[in-house]
Amino acid sequence: MPDATGETIGGAIEERYGGRARLSESFGEITVDVPPADWTGLLEFARVRGYEFFDWLTAVDEPPDEFAVVAHVFNPTSHAHLLLRTRVPRAEPRLPSAVGVFRGADWHERETFEMFGVVFDGHPNLVPLLLPEGFEGFPLRKDFVLAARVAKSWPGAKEPGESDHGSPSRRKALPPGVPADWGRERHA
């Protein structure tokens, strides 16, 4: 959809970032992938182009080597959505903070830092937000070991509901007042 200048956001991003930005479309929404060095610049560019509503930011663990950091912004005038992504290496997950562009990114970056271990350089208060004090590890990483699995392993090699014998059955009980032979076929 063209903006006030008559240009589409995708065309404007391609013109500005050239081969450094990769655009794709899914379900009518544009997704833009950029290198980490262009992250805050892309956020600023989208905001100037009318994508003023910051919706959310999170990370996606993509083993074995990286995390994708994803932000969703919205243009309230054109009702257009834009998904912005970059990738950071798992060994050193660092990215410039988006708080200077969208103040609403503050808690989202804190949560992403706490749950995935992605450090947002320049964040004004990058401290834990949700987990109890002294918690060790990053619980949304795919390699994080769940304490429940350590304390008591599942009986078998599969997760609940995946076994071949089905789930345990309950004792069959009839509702009160229903005769014991009700519903059974009688053979003559």
Automatic annotation (TrEMBL):
Q: In terms of domain of life, where is this protein from?
A: Bacteria
Q: Name one Pfam family in it.
A: Complex1_30kDa
The cross-references to InterPro entries, in alphabetical order and at most eight, read: NADH_quin_OxRdtase_su_C/D-like (IPR037232), NADH_UbQ_OxRdtase_30kDa_su (IPR001268)
Write out the GO MF terms.
NADH dehydrogenase (ubiquinone) activity
Region entry Disordered, spans: 155-188
Domain NADH:ubiquinone oxidoreductase 30kDa subunit, residue spans: 32-149
Assigned protein family = Belongs to the complex I 30 kDa subunit family.
**What is the designated name of this protein?**
NADH-quinone oxidoreductase subunit C
